[in-house]
Design goal:
Layout: E1 12-18, E2 33-39, E3 50-54, E4 69-72, H1 78-84, E5 88-89, E6 92-93
Length: 98
């Protein structure tokens, strides 16, 4: 195992060579081997945000049978949405489905 003493740089190709000087405990020489690998930039993890919703915040005069819509900055798995969206009023949770 080779562990670089510093992080590898993004967008660079690194050449790796294994020389034939390496020997096993039984003194069998290794076959030389070369390969290259490219380091790709790591995209920063940006939290998913709500990009829009209806009804809007503090809306008045909302119909008694509204469809509540929430849009996110990325596609969300439907099972995750069901587990995280809760609608409540003064009496408690409002039943519904996604």
């Amino acid at each position: 195992t080779f562990i670089p003493s510093a992080d590898l740089e993004n967008d660079n190709v690194y050449e790796v060579s294994i020389g034939s000087a390496a020997t096993s405990a039984r003194e069998i020489k290794a076959t030389s081997f070369d390969f290259s690998t490219a380091v790709a930039p790591v995209e920063p993890v940006v939290p998913i945000t709500v990009t829009s919703h209806t009804p809007r915040h503090d809306a008045t005069g909302v119909a008694i049978n509204p469809s509540i819509e929430v849009n996110f900055s990325e596609t969300i798995e439907s099972s995750e949405v069901q587990a995280t969206i809760n609608v409540r009023n003064a009496q408690g949770a409002v039943a519904g489905s996604t």
